[in-house]
Structure formats: structure tokens, C-alpha cells
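Record type: monomer structure entry
Structure origin: computed from sequence
Chain ID: A
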Amino acid sequence: MTYLPYCIAAWLFVVGLYGIVTSRHFVHLIICLSVVQSSTYLLLLSIGFRSLPAQAPIFSDVPPGSPAVDPIVHALTLTDIVVGATVTALLLALTLNIKRKRGSVDPAVLSPFPE
């Protein structure tokens, strides 16, 4: 068993979190959030990986007791990708609306109460 995928997932999470904390632009913040989300893809796929010669979970012609890959992990990863793309698109649309109405996407420039 190798811990390399887990270390890379943790590194991606830390890099994305650092970018979120130090971000001075909403688009940079959204990209860093996508990096954090990609660390969850890597984590889920590394959990579901089997180094044994396992087959796809289609049991029509496979003898009982043979190893199979768990399809739940792959379905969760696909769901995570779809949710991540949807959240990214929504956040980018909101950022465009903020830029159009306020003229800036810098969080420090924007005041919480419009005048």
C-alpha cells in the first residue's frame, strides 16, 4: 500500500486552502475552491483503488467469490465532479453580477452595505 495519493490529496487541499485564505480576487478564490474540490476527487479515487486484479462489478459471467471493484466510490466521484462544476459555474455567474453592479471583484474594496 502506498500513501502517495493521500499525500498528494492533502497537499492539494492545503494549497487550495492557502489560496482561499490569501485571495484578493473572487475569480482566484473560485479557482482555489476548485483545487480543494479536486483533492476530494483524488481522495475518493485512491480509497476505491484496488491493486488486486479485480473486475468490473458486472456479475453475469463472473464466478462467485472473485474480487470486484466497488462502484459506489466511482459514483461518488462522478457526483462530486458534477456538483463541483455546478458550484463553480454558479460562483462565476455571481462574480460577473458583482463586477457588473459594483465595478470590482476585490473583496476588500466591496463594502457589506451598498450606499
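Annotation 1: The chain has a mean pLDDT of 87.
Annotation 2: The chain is about 65% helix and 0% strand.
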